Structures are given as C-alpha cells and as structure tokens.
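Example 3.2
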Amino acid sequence: MSVRSGVRDDGAMTAYWISTYSEVRDEAKVAAYAKLALPALNAAGGRFIARGMPEQVYEAGQATRTVVIEFASVEAARAAHDSPAYAEALAALGDGAVRDIRIVPGVE
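Structure, written as tokens:
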C-alpha cells in the first residue's frame, strides 16, 4: 500500500493532522502529553512529518510550535483522535496548552 500524490493504491486519500500551539501554559503538562500522544498516534497509523518551531514565517504567519502528522485517511486521523489512548494523552495535557488542531485531506 504505497502513497503517491496524496492517494493510496486503494483509492483512499491521505490526510494530515496539523496542530499549532498558540500558547503553552505548562511545559510539564505538554511533556506528559507528548509522552503519551506519540505512541498513541503512531499506533493508530500516524507518521510524524514535522514537529517544532518554524524556521521562517510569512504574511500573517505566527512563530508557534507546529506538528504535522500523516495518516492513511481522514477517517484514520479521526479514529486516532477519538481513541482511548489519545484521550489519556489529552487528559494529561489538560489546560497545559491552547492549540488549534485540524485534519486536512491530501491532494490528488
């Protein structure tokens, strides 16, 4: 099952989970979240593409921590977010950060 141009061999569209952190309120909670979220999202089929602070921003861009995770499909990304393992990570994060998470389909 290879991926080319955003479409898998079985016709499903890849998807990208994009998180931006507009505010980190508690570094310890973010670290506890990351320790649980990484294996939970990997187990759900996620592949981390990018993680960290931007090297450059343009136009209305903001220098905020950004994470990009690739999934086999939008449905797979939703299932990862709604999984019990990820719920445990979210509980550890609590109010430790203000984030924007979006799932975006890949392009053909």
